[in-house]
Amino acid sequence: MDLPIIYHPDYVVPLPEGHRFPMQKFRMLYEMLLADGVAKPEQFYAPTKPPQEIIELVHTPEYVDAYCQGTLDAKAQRKIGLPWSQALANRTCIAVGGTILTAKMALECGLACNTAGGTHHAFPDYGSGFCIFNDLAIASRVLQKSGIIQKILIVDLDVHQGDGTAFIFQNDDSVFTFSMHCEVNFPGTKQKSDLDVPLPVGMEDDEYLQTLAKYLPDLLTQLKPDLIFYDAGVDPHIDDKLGKLALTDRGLFRRDMQVLTTCVKQGYPVACVIGGGYAEDLNVVTYRHSLLHRAASEVYQQNQL
User: Which CATH superfamily is domain 5-302 in?
Assistant: First the structure.
């Protein structure tokens, strides 16, 4: 079996032209992986939309109802930063289903990748920073409730702190949240992850990778998780519009190889999501997101999973 990759056509919905969160990149990522020979059509799996009660394992029924029915008040909608539509509400739920499927495939195959996901700014009763429902938290709860796994490690390397995820699991020893992020970036008010590593503005490739190497191997030794969620946001890139760190394309690829090799070689299954990435040129940001899948494909083959 080849590396499982999760994609659904409904990951792409129309937004106003010029919106800084262009949904087209999800379709472009799928097409790039095929065109560049990173993946074959048979490697892609389409998720299903989970029932509302699954989303309510993390989010309040009032918030889920309001968002899905389009009755969320204007202030709460502005905090999310995305204009509501029925198509976007549907897409949001399907993306959650994608991360759930990615996690199940990772447990089966050792490694799996979503072509979306990483909505780590969503809190139980509100959304924030382009994040509506917290796919990482929901997928964690689904798998734990099923009894398949107990201990989870979330490795969040998006440039922004995973504040929603940290808040959701702040009193839960079964899910360890590790966020390595730019110290002066969004969100302005940080939550307390189990391990926060704030990074100075302008940090470059080598120092970043050395910092990561200080923490990840020890975390695996201490925690021995049943599953790892890896949020591989590409917004630490030097040219990212919302970043403030200074990683190169090569640095992002090395980061992904470092995370996946470290985890997979020790036998820990990894479910990957793409996280954030922002650039005027969609081809550029799509390529950066593809680096995760290129690294995952290489690690998958090297370890003959």
Answer: Histone deacetylase domain (3.40.800.20)
